[in-house]
Amino acid sequence: MTDRVHIDVGGQVYTIPCDLIENGPQSRLQEMYRSASTTSKTYRICLDRPVEMFSAILAMYQTGELHIPMTSCPGAFMNELAFWEIPVEKLSMCCYNRLQCFLDEQETLKKFRDSLEGDTHPKLPQSSASCIQTARYKLWSLVEYRQPSLAARIYFVLTFFMVLLSIFILAVKTDSSFQRAMTNCERLEYMISAGMEDVDLVRETLEKYCDEDTIPNQHVVEGLRRGEFEDESYDYFTEFYITVDGNDTLSGEYTFNSTDNSSIPLVLKSPYPKGKFVKVPNMKVTVYILTVLEVITLVYFTGDLVVRLLSCPSVIQYFVSIINITDALALVCTYAHLLVLYVYEHQRYRDGMIDLLEYSQMLRALRLFRVVSNIRAGKVLAYSIRANFKDLSILFLFLVAGVCTFASCFYIAEDKMDVSSILIGWYWAIVTMTTVGYGDISPKTPFGRFVACVCGISGVLLFALTLPIFANHFITLYQHTDTRSAFRKFRGSESRNNSDNQFTIEDKGEKVTSIVKKNDKV
């Protein structure tokens, strides 16, 4: 009897000592050897298995260590271990860690694929469905960007632009560069709506110079100082002298009783017709072009919401989403603001609590999350945040612990004139640990500088050690989606090429389908 066995694996022959197999770990290879020893005198075993992986199995018998080949997929190697009936626990620790990382990654990718497939997509209507149902499905797919197409891309870009335009308009309306002075007609409208006194005295004058934005310069008294006649802000109101009786005149010293009943002596350098001072509004109004753009965005978002409600599979499910709720709320607040301005016209010229309804349009910024929710990077980012919520929460807990500790130490170290409370220390610690460093609060004492150094270094280490976990997760999922997208494009182009190369020959009522190259002659 020979003391060696010959194993043919994929055409490569291994000559192995028999005692190496007999004394090695229990596996299917031992069973094959024993079976071959009873049926053949040549001790030859033929297998059709991967050569590289069998080399790793053989190395286990030779060295007692089982390693995954560097060029082999850990998943395929696990299948090979299952074929040879070798437990996974035989793997060396270095390769076991590699296998564990592979399994964790595959589990993450599986959950990610399940989350993508679990998204609420409306089912394609059957051929017997009505035209309305089919139209609703196509319209919903378009507005939700479920099925990328030219129309969906145009709608996506337009919606994204409208959201940015709406936010931009609301922001620039607060800048004085985009505001103009009131016209006299608007001043008169304000006075009538607000029920101001002496409207009848100025009505004729303001209507005469209706389209002008300057107050009619009718006997304005020289030497009036800002705020002399007003208990309210001069930026909102002013006063001009309106003639009451053109026959009487005033000259020399004159005492005027202001609105707070205090006497103000005035010296009129020249005779003025007798009259009285009338308070008129002098405020800023948004330029006309911004008002037009605001109406355009309002009409667009109104139509968008109507289309979504008419085409969505379920209105109840639609309003389960926080983004959809805030989007509808912003639109409702806009119409409520317009209704209030319609009833109280003077409110549109002044800042007040009613403007909170208008500023609620900033909630529309959350719509950007819905705009990108169906983009590959948006899906990956959203899932990465959900999957790494525990890791991010640990980061937050460490941040809170560090802020409380360093804030207390900083409060003790610094003078109470600089850091009046631990709450101020919290603000300083957050700014320092996040490496923002505004510089409005800085340490003055040596111990305070030491605390600041430790706080800054701790913040850098905290984010450097925890955020890569989230970043690696995001990169893995993004590469996976990128690979899937490329694979689908490849399969689609391959199927189109196959369909181009396919032809049908009809012969005596029988159809024969063949695949040939385009350059071949039939």
Itemize the secondary structure elements and their pairings.
Layout lengths: L3 E6 L2 E6 H5 L5 H12 L4 E4 L3 H13 L10 H10 L9 H25 L13 H13 L6 H23 L6 E3 L2 H11 L4 H10 L28 E21 L5 E19 L2 E3 L1 H24 L3 H4 L3 H22 L11 H5 L7 H5 L4 H12 L1 H25 L8 H12 L12 H55 L1 E6 L2 E6 L7
Summarize the structure.
The chain has 522 residues and is an alpha+beta fold. It has 18 helices and nine strands.
| Structural class computed from helices and strand pairing | alpha+beta
Low-confidence stretches: 218-234, 244-273, 501-522
Q: Could you describe the largest sheet, including whether it forms a barrel?
A: 3 strands, mixed
- Beta fraction of the residues? 5-15%
Euclidean distance between termini CA atoms: 62 Å
Radius of gyration: 40 Å
The outline comes out as elongated
SSE topology string:
EEHHEHHHHHEHHEEEHHHHHHHHHEE
- Portion in helices: 40-55%
Give the strand tally.
9
- The helix tally amounts to 18
In the sheet with the most strands, the strands line up as: 2-1-3
Provide mean pLDDT, rounded.
76
Written description of the protein model:
It is a single chain. The chain contains 18 helices and 9 strands. It has helices at residues 18-22, 28-39, 51-63, 74-83, 93-117, 131-143, 150-172, 184-194, 199-208, 288-311, 315-318, 322-343, 355-359, 367-371, 376-387, 389-413, 422-433, 446-500; strands at 4-9, 12-17, 44-47, 179-181, 237-257, 263-281, 284-286, 502-507, 510-515. The strands form 4 sheets. The chain has a 3-stranded mixed beta sheet with strand order 2-1-3. A two-stranded antiparallel sheet has the order 4-7. A hairpin with a 2-residue loop joins strand 1 and strand 2 (12-17).
